[in-house]
Amino acid sequence: MSISATLWRNPVDKSDPVNLAVLDDSTRRSIDETPPWPRPAWLIEHVERMRYPMLWEAVQTSWQRKDSEHTTLAARLVHHANHILMNQFREELGLGLHDGDSPALTSVRVVRGGVDVLIDGALFSGAEIDTDPFVYAVGARLPSGGTLTAVVPREHLRYVTLEFVQRPSA
User: pTM of the full predicted structure?
Assistant: First the structure.
């Protein structure tokens, strides 16, 4: 499961211009232009949210029936970090649209353990990737046997507190 969120640099005043994303002209035009056909309220709301930066798939949780080398905390953390790098930093990494499915941009060699991760008010021993110039990643094993990972672009780190709470079941 992945969770994305709008980044509010000033959550007290959501109308503060500091909250707006830096948009290219094409994106700004596509947001500002109203099509000649009616749009449902949910679509209008979604388009308006595009004005603000997103923490795209910032938090992921996973659970596997059997442990393997691909389901370790380090492997899940690397997979999540590479996913964000491949999908959000292609230009910065010099990758074209068709440059492989998933090049290894970071690896388990850079995962550092012994990091405290706060989940539901309790500290868990976790791991981090703090060597990539574009993202910071942290994660922990959950008491349920699952894994929680979070990957945040470094430019947004100062606005984010990396503390986690379990969502109530639907």
Answer: 0.85
